[in-house]
Design a protein that fits this description.
The complex is a heterodimer of chains A (about 280) and B (about 270). Chain A is built from 12 helices and no strands. Chain A is mostly helical. Chain B contains 10 helices and 10 strands. In chain B, a hairpin with a 2-residue loop joins β4 and β5. Classes of the chains: A mainly alpha (about 280), B alpha/beta (about 270). Chains A and B meet through α1, α7, α8 and α11 of A and α2 of B. Bound molecules: adenosine-5'-triphosphate and magnesium ion. Chain B: This is ABC transporter.
Chain lengths: ~280, ~270
């Protein structure tokens, strides 16, 4: 339980710290696609009796770099190429897992939807180390990554190593997807990257504050998700995502109410317009 | 500043550029001297943006040479000396960003990506925003600014890096008169400080007094080079303005800058 909590908290912080750049680029769904590709890595690991986490990192990193290269080309066929990669990834994963010795459905579900209970001490160390690496990269390079995501051409003219930064982001996405696979599962990974950011940006004015609030929401949702799921015996990954979505809705409603009140305050004695019947 | 450079700030020799095999610019030679303000004019689609984007290395050249500050563009590394003002804010805006954050990215060329932002960076951001009259909006999301104010944010971003050369793509397109004046004033101060400016424009408007030299691009070549041409309305048939009171930009571009007899001289001379 403690192990599960630590893993979840690290991912709750790291996923939105990376996800904000994806959202800024309007690539919110890319994490989902890389999650599909990572499943092939899991299958490879199970088949070769190696750690599925390590093979998933490698395969999804290759996939992410491939996607980045397609994006750089900017071809119209890029969208289709991505679709082929994603479906190839998930189909390949299901087939490979099926071929492995431990081909039970439960095993597959554990990677698709996460399973904190089976998190080993070794896993927690891997999650913590990689999670801290992701967090460090995303915060140290925030100005440069912001510049690249905000205006790639300007960043190029500024002489920034745009290609390297893009590859860094692709590899980081793959790493985040893989470590989050243990907590929320490959199918819900993207939600933890995107939903906290989407919730935060409803009330923030700047990039930095969005990142900070998104990380707080991610951390809170992940922590509460583990606690709640243990209490009422639900899947921790899905519970975490539901909680993050609840925060999104709460902020949407709350800020709507505040806006309405403020408008009322600005026009305190606004007279109700008389009901006019336009045409008899 | 740039006065010590033996060569021009931007030197373009026999440049040809195309997209997917279709050549847009055939043979462009252009040079700007330190402290000069050069306007690139031409009709829509004549390749003005292509020209400056090639100079900045965003579009590959098919033939010809480009030097920046006397160094071949291919090996040029001192990008902090160049400030680029694109026509529009980049497409990536899925997350709110404040005016201050956008302008702060103009410091990265000077600072590098490893050093965190320091007091000098913050002071430069404040000074640049003051220069374009937007300091009071520093904490506002850029998406809440008008088109003209966003344009001024972009020039502040370029100015924050203290460049020696400013390259601007249609900085005043779709910008109201007040913003255009603020824009022209900021550019004027930059030029007065010895800075070199290369700008693409459709209508010079309040920028006209700043321009030392105009270059008209037509059919992939330079059709005219010299003093900025007077707007068509000034010397054309007085009825002209009444016949086309709100002529489309495109039309204005063609009738204002299309080659005249004066230009044909140069074209045949080439
Ligand atoms: N990325 C691109 N790919 C293919 N063709 C392009 C691309 N960018 C521009 N072109 C073509 O190159 C030509 C010149 O375009 P460019 O944008 O340089 O013109 P411009 O003079 O800046 O026009 P405007 O006044 O409308 O800004 C046009 O015919 C355009 O269709
Ligand atoms: Mg253009």
């Amino acid at each position: 339980m403690i192990r599960a909590l630590i893993g979840a908290l690290v991912i709750g912080l790291a996923a939105p710290a990376l996800g904000i750049y994806l959202v800024q680029r309007r690539l919110s769904l890319i994490g989902d696609g890389i999650g599909h590709v990572a499943l092939t890595g899991v299958g490879v690991g199970l088949l070769l009796h190696h750690s599925p986490v390590i093979s998933a990192v490698i395969v999804s990193a290759i996939g992410a770099v491939g996607i980045e290269l397609i994006r750089q080309r900017g071809r119209t066929s890029g969208d289709l190429a991505l679709a082929l990669l994603f479906y190839g990834g998930i189909a390949g994963g299901v087939v490979l897992v099926g071929l492995s010795d431990d081909s039970s459905n439960a095993n597959l579900m554990q990677y698709l939807f996460g399973s904190l209970i089976t998190t080993s001490p070794q896993d927690v160390v891997v999650i913590a180390v990689l999670g801290v690496a992701v967090l460090t990269a995303m915060t140290v390079f925030r100005p440069a990554l912001f510049a690249v995501c905000n205006d790639e051409e300007y960043a190029k003219v500024s002489g920034l190593p745009v290609r390297t930064l893009n590859l860094l982001m692709a590899v980081t996405t793959a790493v985040t997807v893989t470590i989050a696979m243990r907590t929320v599962g490959l199918l819900l990974v993207s939600a933890l990257m995107v939903v906290p950011v989407a919730a935060a940006q409803q009330v923030t004015r700047g990039f930095r504050s969005t990142m900070a609030l998104g990380m707080v929401i991610g951390l809170g949702a992940a922590g509460a998700g583990v606690a709640v799921s243990a209490e009422i015996d639900t899947a921790p990954g899905a519970t975490t995502v539901i909680l993050a979505l609840a925060v999104f809705v709460a902020i949407a409603l709350g800020s709507g109410v505040v806006r309405a009140l403020r408008r009322r305050a600005h026009h305190p004695r606004e007279v109700e317009p008389p009901d006019v019947v336009l045409q008899g | 500043m740039t006065a010590a450079d033996p060569k021009g700030v931007v030197d373009v020799r026999h440049l040809a550029v195309g997209y997917d095999g279709r050549e847009i610019l055939h043979d462009i030679s252009l040079s700007t001297q330190p402290g000069e303000v050069v306007a690139i004019l031409g009709a829509n689609g004549s390749g003005k943006s292509t020209l400056i984007r090639t100079i900045l290395g965003l579009v590959p050249a098919a033939r010809g040479e480009i030097d920046l500050f006397g160094t071949a563009q291919r090996t040029f590394r001192d990008w902090a000396r160049v400030g680029y003002v694109p026509q529009r804010l980049g497409a990536g805006s899925g997350v709110p960003a404040t005016v201050g954050e956008v302008v702060a990215s103009g410091r990265l060329a000077r600072r590098g990506i490893f050093r965190p932002s320091g007091t000098a960076d913050k002071a430069a951001v404040v000074a640049a925003l003051q220069d374009v009259g937007l300091l009071d909006r520093i904490g506002d999301p850029v998406s809440t600014l008008s088109g003209g104010q966003q344009q001024r944010t972009l020039i502040a971003r370029a100015l924050a890096g203290h460049p020696d050369l400013l390259v601007l793509d249609e900085p005043t397109a779709g910008v109201d008169a007040a913003s255009q004046e603020a824009f022209a004033a900021a550019l004027g101060r930059f030029a007065a400080g010895g800075g070199t400016i290369l700008l693409v424009a459709h209508e010079l408007g309040p920028l006209r007094p700043l321009i030392d030299r105009a270059v008209v691009v037509h059919e992939g070549r330079i059709a005219y080079e010299g003093a900025p041409p007077e707007p068509a309305g000034h010397h054309a048939d007085p009825d002209h303005d009444h016949v086309h009171p709100h002529a489309a930009l495109e039309k204005a571009g063609i009738c204002e800058w299309a080659p005249t007899d004066r230009m044909t001289n140069r074209m045949t001379a080439n």
